[in-house]
Amino acid sequence: MKESALRILLFGDTHLGYDHSFQPRIQRRRRGPDFLENFYRVLSYARKEGVDLLVHGGDLFFRSKIPKRLIPLVYDPLLELAETGLPIFLIPGNHERSRFPTPILLAHPNIHVFAEPSTHLAQIKDYRILLAGFPFWRSNLKDNFRNLLAATGWQKEKADLHLLCLHQIFRGAQVEGYTFRGGPDVVSQKWVPDQFQAVLSGHIHRFQVLPHFWACQRYCPPVIYPGSTERTSFMEKSEVKGFCVLHFIAGFNGLQLQNINFVPLPTRPMLDIHIPAQFDNTVDLGDLVRKELLQIPKDAIVRLKLPEGMPSWATDFLTSRRLRALSPATMNVQLQRPRLESRSLSEVSSPV
Questions:
Q1: How far apart are the C-alpha atoms of 246 and 255, rounded to whole Å?
Q2: How far apart are the C-alpha atoms of 97 and 254, rounded to whole Å?
Q3: What values do phi and psi take at 122, rounded to 5?
Q4: I need a surface site. Which of 41, 48, 108, 127 has the fewest CB within 10 A?
Q5: Same domain as 282, residue 241
Q6: What is the pLDDT of residues 47-100, one digit of tens each?
């Protein structure tokens, strides 16, 4: 295998700020630090491994409005990495409402934000790299994609490598139990000009590569989703999270994608516990929940699933406060409520 001429680190959907509070009203374990730690792990890898370029595929933050104290925890490490000379490219996603908070704080010659349809150039080694893209577009992308791409001005520049950077859904992308086939906001690879060697995209949380193919005697570049760096919902409980390192080699016509190395990140186990319906009192229910929680990893993220038809006293009993009392302090526990029968707590023979 030839040695890589260029290495690009691609990650995204970090959702920083998820379950993060600087002044919590309730003392419990929060998941916000998990998200930040994996973000820092990616930046540390980029620095230690000496990658040539860093791309974030969007949804840097969990919301458009975030605590002000969170901003330096995110921007300062990016600025420090940019100071090493590493070119960094950021795509605003749908969770940021296509715009980063306080973008002026990201002002640095090595940090490039796709705040609007635009093209950025980077000179790395002997190669000229072109990155075109636009922030997340949520309104009828099917009819607007070609105009948005043209507005980047990518055709005016020559380069050894052309990359399209987006935060959108492509046809064929998969999430748990579903494949996107079409719709007004689903992009077709056929719409991407064949001058682009690859599409780097966020928005889909599962790592996947939509392979290149030939359509109508024209090359369609691969679409690379690095996935999210943490599990954001129980739909993702079985997914490995991480980021990608893309290796490019010199070819006959500029740089060509050689291989994609997926680098996994540590994640806490995410588990479902199914509670049976045969309970007459809260004492037995509480004992069962405590026993079940003690049999799984102490740092697990847990969803208690009650069956349909469970009486209302069960969910009245399993409050957030009581779940914290029943579980180790190192866990996150939540309740999935079923459709309830109309039994009140007063009907239970032995309430707590």
A1: 12
A2: 35
A3: -135, 130
A4: 48
A5: no
A6: 999 999 999 999 999 999 999 999 999 999 999 999 999 999 999 999 999 999
